[in-house]
Amino acid sequence: MGAFSGAPKLVAFVSLCPNLLATEVMQQALASEDVRVTATEGRTCPHSELATCVTLPPLIRPTGPRVLLLRACPASVRCTTERFRQRFVMYAAGANLYDILDATKVADYVVLAMSSQVEVDDFGLLILGAIQAQGCPVIVPVVPDLEAAPPKQRGDIKKSLLSFIQHHFPNEPKVHALESPSDRLLFLRHLAEAPPRTVHWRESHPYLVRIR
Fold first, then answer.
1. Class assignment of domain 9-197?
2. Span 150-162, pLDDT tens digits
3. How far is the CA of 100 from the CAs of 3, 73, 89, 92, in angstroms?
């Protein structure tokens, strides 16, 4: 799975905090010289094309109803990485529970984005419980805005977020940062090398993923 001659790995991005957009986190993760984007697709928004949602500068937050519009806009990206010889289909889930459950239902890896500035809210806790109830593929926790915290507090913040995520998924060994090139490379390496986890109910209830 994931090799150039096989099916791509399916990666779903989900935001657990109200100040993070899944589309921005996905864009940040793909901002690497090792990644070549081959196709994008998604829904259009009332204010602009979806591409505008995907290419917003990281960590810039619009205000008012515009936030809800952006959070509701999913996007998918097909990409390859030559360094690890892998293909991926990455999908940024919108901020509604049904979209998130549909995305995680078929995903091989679920990237859970947490903030260094804002705690996981009630909706984020609902997402975690729903993913656990539905069946967990490989969980990859990330903190995309770690550099917004004071340098002396970053280590403690990562430890706190790791403790939080291990309460729900005890086998997760680390929380990935995404802000430096080396951080993004380690994140991609983890996606490339971590074996998919079997979700047994899928064997008798298969689902199809449409890829143009």
1. alpha beta
2. 989 999 999 999 9
3. 26, 12, 16, 9
